[in-house]
């Protein structure tokens, strides 16, 4: 009976005092208000409260605010209801709505002794940038150490600061109860590992011990043999270069721009053969020289060679450096 009387006093037609909103939003807010009020009359608080809250957000009105407060009171969120009744009281006084003033005052007086209160305390020494949140909402610095009304139930509080490990506390509180949460000092976060080396850095390895004289001579024969093979390949392609050059000259007797297909092909083959010959002869000479030095030298080299893997952005490989 009490619910019916209250809802009759704050029926939809009393929403004329709401702040102007776009026409389409007015329609949406009105539909949500009517549906929320209907569910509230049936005491279906879990379904009614979100609709009334959204209607109030879209198009604030004194009637919607009081209905939302009644819904939260019925849902057990008495601190939320107490705050909303307090806001409704201010608005009702401004609008000179004595009926709403009476409803708001009666519920504020009834709810206030039942409010749970939570006290959050911090250590004396605090890291810079400290933030404490309750339910994801930051708590102001002035509120620390002060009993702040909260809704009954479970609450999660989290404290965090730069370069420190976060701390989370959970507390369950009942109607009329006052509880204190004492946060300990936050622990410093472990230092970050050193950054990895650049992808283009070269990872070197310790140079291996010098091989004995017999090993040097064996290596000299192998390197010298590879050099002779390279010289042979270079000589073969050198002779082929001259052969293809003759064919190219015969096919291009009227000038480079008037080469026959056979002459043009021979010209390209001559260039390719010449490149291979140059590389083969060059590597061959180096191989023969290094091999001869390793075979015929009697004393150990003044310095060792050094081998290291090279890792780069586009691939990898192996490089060698030293004196022979």
User: What value does the average pLDDT take?
Assistant: 78
CATH topology of the largest domain: Serine Threonine Protein Phosphatase 5, Tetratricopeptide repeat
Order of helices and strands: HHHHHHEEEEEEEHHEE
Which percent range fits the helix content?
Answer: 40-55%
Q: Pick out the low-confidence regions.
A: 1-5, 8-18, 198-204, 300-305, 307-320
Give the CATH superfamily of the largest domain.
Tetratricopeptide repeat domain
Roughly what fraction of the amino acids lie in strands?
5-15%
What gap, in angstroms, lies between the N and C termini? Answer: 108 Å
Tags for this model:
3-stranded mixed β-sheet, 324 residues, single chain, Immunoglobulin-like, alpha+beta, disordered N terminus, Serine Threonine Protein Phosphatase 5, Tetratricopeptide repeat
């Amino acid at each position: 009976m009490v619910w019916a009387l209250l809802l009759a006093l704050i029926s939809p037609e009393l929403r004329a005092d709401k702040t102007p909103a776009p026409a389409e939003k007015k329609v949406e807010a009105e539909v949500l208000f009517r549906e929320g009020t209907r569910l509230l009359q049936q005491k279906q608080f879990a379904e009614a409260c979100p609709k009334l809250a959204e209607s109030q957000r879209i198009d604030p009105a004194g009637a919607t605010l009081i209905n939302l407060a009644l819904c939260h009171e019925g849902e057990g969120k008495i601190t939320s209801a107490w705050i909303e009744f307090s806001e409704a009281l201010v608005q009702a006084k401004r609008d000179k709505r004595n009926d709403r003033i009476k409803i708001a005052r009666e519920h504020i007086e009834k709810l206030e002794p039942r409010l749970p209160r939570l006290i959050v305390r911090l250590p004396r020494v605090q890291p810079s940038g400290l933030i404490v949140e309750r339910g994801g909402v930051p708590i102001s610095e002035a509120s620390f150490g002060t009993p702040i009304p909260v809704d009954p139930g479970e609450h999660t509080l989290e404290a965090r600061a730069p370069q420190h490990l976060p701390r989370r506390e959970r507390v369950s509180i009942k109607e009329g109860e006052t509880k204190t949460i004492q946060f300990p000092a936050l622990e410093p976060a472990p230092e970050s590992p050193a950054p990895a080396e650049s992808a283009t850095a070269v990872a070197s390895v310790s140079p291996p011990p010098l091989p004995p004289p017999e090993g040097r001579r064996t290596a000299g024969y192998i390197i010298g043999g590879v050099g002779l093979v390279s010289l042979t390949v270079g000589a073969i392609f050198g002779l082929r270069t001259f052969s293809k050059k003759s064919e190219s000259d015969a096919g291009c007797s009227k000038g480079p721009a008037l080469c026959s297909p056979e002459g043009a092909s021979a010209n390209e083959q001559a260039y390719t053969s010449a490149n291979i010959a140059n590389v083969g002869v060059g590597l061959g000479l180096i191989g023969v020289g290094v091999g001869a030095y390793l075979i015929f030298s009697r004393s150990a080299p003044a310095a060792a060679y050094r081998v290291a893997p090279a890792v780069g952005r586009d691939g990898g490989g192996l490089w060698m450096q030293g004196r022979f």
